[in-house]
Amino acid sequence: MDDLERQLFDALTRAAADGHLVPGTDVATEVAHLLALNHGLGTSILIRQRTVEEAEAVLRRHLDRLFGAGPQSTRTVR
Q1: Where are the alpha helices (DSSP H) in the chain?
Q2: Residues of the chain falling short of pLDDT 70
Q3: Per the confidence metrics, is the pTM higher than 0.90?
Q4: Distance between CA 48 and CA 46 in Å, rounded?
Q5: Cβ–Cβ under 8 Å, residues 62 and 37
């Protein structure tokens, strides 16, 4: 497990323990999913398939589902 993967795992484990994730979330699977999503979106920006804003919207949508936010969430990704 590399540093980024470990940091994400630790952060999501704490979020799950604090009740911030959707119940039943498999943290290890979500870490792999987030890393793959990040790499894929980064590549799609580099090859100009998608804008930064479009990529942020995709990531925001995934995080909203992971953290149980509704479709009207006002949380932003930074």
Answers
A1: 3-17, 27-46, 52-66
A2: 70-78
A3: no
A4: 5
A5: yes
